Structures are given as C-alpha cells and as structure tokens.
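Standup, Tuesday
Yesterday: got the pipeline producing structure tokens again.
Today: sanity-check two examples.
Blockers: none.

Example 1:
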Amino acid sequence: LLGQVREATARVWLALLFWTLPPMALLVLFLRRLRSRDGGRSSAFERSGIVSLAVLAAAANPVLLREATASRLADAAAPAAVLLAWLLHQLIGDLPARALPSLARPRGAIFSEQRGQPVRVLRSRLPTLARACLAVALLLVTSVSLWIEAPFWNNLERSAILSGPSAVLARGSEVARALATSPPIDVIAPPGQTGQGALIRYVSACLKPTDRLLVAAQRAVNYRFYFYSGRGFAGGHPTLHPRLSSSLEDQQLTVTRLQMQSVPIVLVDLTQARPFESEFPLVNRYLMANHVAVQESSFGDAQSNATVFRVSVDRRIPPTGVYEPLSLPCFS
C-alpha cells in the first residue's frame, strides 16, 4: 500500500510539473518584459525560444502524457527539461557569482564591503538562500518522483553499465539484433511474456500475413498489437473510439469493410470505461453473428490495473491448430 501511495504521489507531482511548466514560463517571460529593470536582458532569441518551447510542450502534453506514464516521460521530457532549467535560472539568478564572490572581485574589496555594511549584506543574502533552497527542493522532489515513476534502476541494470565495458558491448549487440528484426516483437514481448505481450505473440504466430486484426479498445494499447505483430487493422480503423467512429454511418462503413476482409481474431478490452457493445451496436451485432468468444482473461498479468481482453474467433474460418501457450485457436 505504501508503495502504491508513493507511486501515485510521484505521478501526480510529475503531471502537475509537466502541465504547469509551459504557462509558468510564459508568465515569467511576460513579467520580465513588464519590469523596467529588466533592461532588455531577455533577448529576442531567448524570448522566441522560450515561447516556442512552451507552445510545443503545451501542445504535446495532452497527447503524450496519457497512460503508461513511465514509457511516455521521455517523449515529453525534452522541452520540459529546458523550460525547468530556464525557470530555475530565473529563480536563482547569478547565485554562483554571489555565493563565491572571491572569483569575481578583489579579495580586499570584499572584506571591506562586508565589514562596512554587514546588515545590508545579510539582508541581500537571505532571499538568495531562500531561492536556492527552493530550487534544490524542486530538483530533489522531481528527481525522487522520476526515480519512483520510471524504472530507473531496472533500466540501469538492463543497460549493463554497472557490469563493465564487455557487458555493455554484449548488451549493445543484443539490442541491435532485436531492433534489426522487423517487427521487433522480442523487444516488447519476449518469449514467456504475460498479459498483452502474450497476446501479441499469439496474434503474430496465429494470423497469416494477409489476415487483419480487430482490437476494440479506447486506450492506446491497440497500436502495439498491429505494429509488433506485423498485421494490419481491420474495419478501416486502427482504433474504435466512441468520439471518432461511432456514428451509424461510420459503423456501417466499418461493417462493410469487415465483410470484405479476413478477420479471424478479434480482441475486445473489457476494462474500458465505455463498453464496446453499447458504443458500437452495429459492429458488435456483426461480430456476434460471425465470431464466438473463446476466452476472457488478463493472460497472467497480475497487476491490479491489468487489462482484461475477450478473445473472439471467426466461426466461419476453421482453425489450423492450437496455440499451446494460451490454449487458443490458431489460423496461420
């Protein structure tokens, strides 16, 4: 339970950070322009760069920061990291020069200034110290959240960096071989994988290259089935989303396409918020008439939020065998 609380807290913090960085950067840039003492410090190049990054991050966050946060952080991290670094610079300013004044001024001048005006120097240092502590706290909380949310230690061990140069070279060769395979199914679904990985291997092994696959899911899990199995999507839609293709005209067009395609296997996500049967009644009626459900399972995924799939097969197509790892009909 404590681990789940930590993960939830880290996820909330990272979401708030990524979402607030773009408007915060634009606000700080606007306030700097209003301050008369800015004196033109923010150049046109800096302003255009920050505005571009903020707009890019604001547009990318709704698309990238959805589910599977750990795997999507890298996609949204680049502009966010630059914006965070720029905001921290605005926060602490020239702190290093003031923290180490001996590097910037003659030593005697510093001592005489500090002896002559101790109170003014103390007051000027306190805000700097507070800003520095705030910056360190932000970096610390963000680093800890990234450590918890992203499998940093597991990825570090997988990289073999801690095992020496020979292990790194061996790991590099292994990754190169995996990526040279098209599609690279062993990257996401190695042999013995459970859950969605097991289903991906099933689809890859039990569909002919000319067969189509239908995955009815509102979440972005269906694309990996098509890509890693090397099979095309059925019905003319890579995803059946209620807001995109649920009108009667769209459903009728989907059914017409399904009638012209070979779709031996259909996967339906049973954990989606809006049930497929109620959102796509025409498509569901066609599938009920021509396909039969053979299994409903998470296929070994023991996570609390595991996706449960219903596997249906076309009753008009005789199977060529049984896929032993999952005991499902095979059509290859």
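Example 2:
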Amino acid sequence: MSTRRLIIAALLCGVAILVAGTILLVSLSTNDVKDRVDRVPVPTTRG
C-alpha cells in the first residue's frame, strides 16, 4: 500500500509541476509579447 501511495503522490506532484510550468510559460510569453509591443514604436505619423 505504501508503494502505491508513493506512486500516486509522485504522479500528482508531476502533474502539478507540469500545470504550474505551463501557466508560468504562458504568462511569461504573454508578458514578453506585451513588452515587445510596448517597446516597438507605432508608425502612426509616418504614412
């Protein structure tokens, strides 16, 4: 029983780490895109 509990705990921890990693990657990617868009000057006067 202890081995099963350890395996289940390890699986749950792995899933939690994967979910947290994906959320962090998505948030970081969106932040990078926003920063790049803010940094790039919009050529509204030129045309």
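Quick observation on example 2: The first helix runs from residue 2 to 39. The chain has a mean pLDDT of 83.
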